[in-house]
Amino acid sequence: MIEALPAFVQAALPKPRLWGILSTMTGKAALREALEGLEFSGACRFDEPMAAHTTFKVGGPAELWIQPDAACFLSFTPSLLRRAKALGIPVFILGGGANIVAADRGIAGIVLDTGKWAGMLPGRGTEAAGTVGPGRELPGGPEAAGPGTVELGAMAAGRGLAAFRSGTPADQAACLTASLGLGGLEFLAGMPGSIGGSVWMNARCYEKSVSAVLEETEILDEDREVRRVPFRAADFGYKKSPFQNRDVLILSALFHLESRPEAELRAVMDAHREDREAKGHYRFPSAGSAFKNNRAFGKPTGKIIDELGLRGLSRGGASIAPWHGNLLINTGCATAADIRALTDEVREKTFAALGINLECEILFVGF
Ligand SMILES: Cc1cc2nc3c(=O)[nH]c(=O)nc-3n(C[C@H](O)[C@H](O)[C@H](O)COP(=O)(O)OP(=O)(O)OC[C@H]3O[C@@H](n4cnc5c(N)ncnc54)[C@H](O)[C@@H]3O)c2cc1C
């Protein structure tokens, strides 16, 4: 299937990170060896269907799906990743599964799910905790933040810092900071996915990218050591982050925010959610925009696809939404292969008609 594609199609397919060697299925014995003796709490299952963990609702079994609790995440994860590397077991880091298509045959090796590594973090950039929004506390009190609490750092009058663990849903991060009277993340309201995935993707909506508010990212680096990576504008671009070229796990992200009235922020967030509803984002399983926009095309990719009359084009259960050219949906019975075939067809037709090479935004994992 992939081999049959024209070279330009293959070259532009985004490459999600699978740590290690992606070959045949890894084997339960090696996976058990990777886990042996490690202290772990959380969920861990062999042959876990990825359809249950992706917003597209497609995908075969992960050989080993593992979702550590927050309490053991920082001790367990580096050890697991070191073992996996030594044993040649590939690892895929899963956020909210909102931008991936997992292959029907499944994902070899380990899928490390960050979903429980969620919540705000304490003391990152906090010289004068709590100075933003006098008298404000985390909803539910300081304990609500879990192990590692959040405190707000004052950068300057009217500004603040807030850090989130990577598994925190992006929408939740927007809500939490708004409830603290901090603006800056409201553009993420209603967008599925996690903070880790949003930083990795440099997610963008409502004319703003995550990089606009990112101050620092904390990662487990290639040696599985914790490192802080200060934000550098030159490392980021449209839907591009430096982490896309590295085998790292994003642990947390620190954002610089501004003091703003909560009611104002809530109004903006409600408007974004309503806009997404109106655009049919949640009507069917999907991963949002299938293709990236590109200024050089002169118009949004959705419009280009519309004008080619490709709305409603289907392959099996996958379809270009009849109401939006850049939304590829699972009408109920799509396979990952259907989604792949449909993206290939749209790319080939667009190239044939206009010489435009569309770049996939959705990531194909395990193909
Ligand atoms: C209805 C809908 C609307 C959407 N609208 C938008 C939109 O407006 N703008 C936009 O940009 N996107 C949009 N998306 C896509 C998606 O929400 C974003 O790309 C989101 O940032 C993906 O985050 P995730 O946690 O789900 O990442 P995943 O899909 O789980 O992973 C995506 C990539 O990030 C990597 N990754 C995830 N977490 C980590 C981590 N902690 N460390 C290292 N790597 C990690 C994964 O390995 C993978 O390569 C939409 C999706 C849906 C379903």
What does it look like?
This protein has three domains: 7-113, 2-Layer Sandwich (Uridine Diphospho-n-acetylenolpyruvylglucosamine Reductase, domain 2), CATH 3.30.43; 142-275, Uridine Diphospho-n-acetylenolpyruvylglucosamine Reductase, domain 3, CATH 3.30.465.10; 282-365, Alpha-Beta Complex (Uridine Diphospho-n-acetylenolpyruvylglucosamine Reductase, domain 1), CATH 3.90.78.10. The chain contains eight helices and 18 strands. It has helices spanning 7-12, 28-35, 70-87, 170-179, 195-201, 262-278, 301-307, 336-354, and strands spanning 42-49, 61-68, 91-94, 100-102, 107-113, 153-154, 159-165, 182-183, 204-205, 208-209, 214-220, 226-230, 249-259, 286-289, 314-315, 318-320, 327-330, 363-365. β16 and β17 (327-330) form a beta hairpin. The longest helix has 19 residues, at 336-354. The radius of gyration is 21 Å and the shape is globular. Bound molecules: flavin-adenine dinucleotide. Flavin-adenine dinucleotide binds at residues 16-17, 55, 92-100, 114, 166, 191-194, 196-198, 200-201, 203-205, 243, 249-250, 281-282, 286-288, 363.
